[in-house]
Specification:
Layout: H1 2-11, H2 22-54, H3 67-91, H4 97-100, H5 108-130, E1 133-138, H6 144-173, H7 179-191, H8 203-227, H9 231-247, E2 263-267, H10 284-304, H11 306-309
Antiparallel strand pairs: 1-2
Helix pairs in contact: 2-3, 2-6, 3-6, 5-9, 5-10, 6-7, 6-9, 7-8, 8-9, 8-10
């Protein structure tokens, strides 16, 4: 019984113990990931419900804000969740913001953002050239205010995923386990939450989507290791999502909800060229683009020796 009690203490997410075999510590990091993810989401949901009641609406009776307002609240809520994760990091892991990756290298956010624009635009344009996506010009009556708000909202959303996967998970594992193990675990935990959005997709599209998730996760990790910071990964993640959703108006990771966009673009049928209902993130063309970026990122990471040192 005492051994079981000690085991439970070791893997508890409410302490910063590391004195245990690597496989056990990997299990602990898995637990920490889901603990902070579900915990922050639960608190975020409670805040959203409280906002409804504070504004005189009863969500239990179906009284809700407009879809656009709900979208903004949900995405800006990721900012609150980031704060909760960082609070956990400080109180229970006894670590600083710099140790999770938020250091003075804020300028690398712009580098990541530019990379995000290039990758998503090249991917989309190549799919359009195949005819698997049609470009129908610019929308009339564009809601620019909402689009700008969505840009800020995606800054929060992208940061949340990066704080969890390239922040908490990668930073906890990189010094305890090997860098390949740290990359593998962070990639798995990045992929799993996306699987639910693949429900109903064909097997070939699901396979390509998972391959692309692996590639983009590793690219995010290489950026984190290259700049010894989370800023660049946050930049590429957030801007990729924003451009895809609110500039091009295409599906984002299987989310078919329509929102304000600038360009009128639509998939033609469902195939591995356009990624079907999951969007171009499940396209083989995107896979080629990301593969090129992966090779470049891997080469840079190897050259700088950051993968061996594992320093952030």
């Amino acid at each position: 019984m005492s051994k079981i009690k000690q085991l439970l203490k070791n893997i508890s997410p409410l302490n910063n113990r590391t004195e245990m075999p690597v496989p056990l510590y990997v299990i602990k990091v898995f637990i920490i990931f889901w603990f902070v993810k579900f915990g922050s989401e639960l608190i975020g949901e409670a805040v959203v419900i409280a906002l409804h009641f504070a504004c005189g609406k009863n969500p239990l009776k179906g009284e809700m804000f407009s879809p656009n307002t709900i979208t903004l609240i949900m995405y800006f809520g990721y900012g609150l969740m980031v704060g909760i994760v960082l609070l956990y990091w400080k109180l229970f892991q006894k670590k600083t913001l710099e140790q999770i990756g938020f250091n003075k290298k804020v300028g690398s956010y712009l580098i990541g953002a530019i990379a995000g624009v290039v990758l998503v635009v090249v991917s989309a344009v190549l799919v359009v050239l195949t005819g698997a996506i049609t470009y129908n010009g610019v929308f009339n009556n564009i809601d620019y205010v909402f689009i700008i708000l969505m840009l800020l909202a995606f800054v929060c959303q992208g940061a949340m995923e990066e704080v969890l996967c390239r922040g908490v998970v990668l930073q906890l594992l990189k010094n305890k386990a090997s860098i390949p193990v740290a990359l593998g675990v962070s990639t798995v935990l990045f992929i799993v939450p996306h699987l639910g959005n693949m429900s109903g997709a064909s097997v070939d599209i699901i396979i390509v989507a998972i391959v692309n998730l692996i590639l983009i996760s590793l690219i995010f990790s290489f950026l984190t290791l290259k700049f010894k910071s989370l800023w660049a990964a946050c930049g590429i993640h957030s801007i990729w999502n924003f451009v895809l959703c609110n500039i091009m108006g295409l599906n984002l990771s299987g989310n078919e909800a329509k929102t304000a966009a600038i360009f009128d673009m639509h998939s033609v049928g469902s195939n591995i060229l356009n990624g079907g209902m999951y969007g171009i993130e499940a396209s083989v063309i995107t896979a080629v683009v990301l593969s090129v970026a992966f090779v470049i990122g891997y080469g840079i990471a190897r050259r700088d020796n950051n993968m061996k040192e594992g320093q952030v």
